[in-house]
Amino acid sequence: MNITIINGPNLNLLGTREPGIYGHEDFESVLKHLRQSYPNDTITYFQSNHEGDIIDHLQKVGFGDCDGIILNAGAYTHTSLAIADCIAAINTPVVEVHISNVHAREEIRHRSMISKVCKGVILGFGTDVYRLAIESFRKQ
Ligand code: DQA
Fold first, then answer.
1. Is the sign of the CA dihedral 52, 117, 69, 108 positive or negative?
2. Which terminus of the chain is more exposed, N or C, with fewer CB under 10 A?
């Protein structure tokens, strides 16, 4: 399978950013373990702090031979109608993930603009949410 992981703003700081919430592991390490666990799959990775760049990348991979997109849109999850519109427009299914349990946090994080246009949502299991999202695509 061809899987694309897209991480949004501040997720480049994983490992040092609020480790009590997001853990101590950086994303390069998460990615390395995923690629070791799924050697027959191609897992590509893109991270940006910019809403438009995330949309450009969703459009770039969303009409081609990518089987599934795993999107952690970070804080844009709660605000971005533009990312929701993009997910609705592309062909490739998107699974929304969050490392933390957003429903156990501030109320503003309880609303997702993108959930309704995603195939499913996985949240609250730490960085294991990326592996669980890959499993969801493999089982379809
Ligand atoms: C997050 C949760 C968001 O509310 C937050 O803005 C993030 C990370 C998560 O993975 O738990 O940046 O998406």
1. positive
2. C
Is 98 a residue of the active site? yes
43, β-bridge pairs = 3
Ligand 1 atom index nearest CA of 98 = 10
pLDDT tens, 4-26?
A: 999 999 999 999 999 999 999 99
Q: What whole-number distance in Å separates Cα of residue 14 and Cα of residue 69? A: 20
Beta bridge partners of 3: 43, 68
Residues lining ligand 1, CB < 6 A?
10, 72, 74-75, 77, 98-100, 102, 109
Q: Known catalytic residue: 50?
A: no
Q: 90: domain range? A: 2-138
- Active-site annotation holder among 57, 76, 98, 130: 98
List the CATH number of the domain containing 18.
3.40.50.9100
For the full predicted model, state whether its pTM sits above 0.90: yes
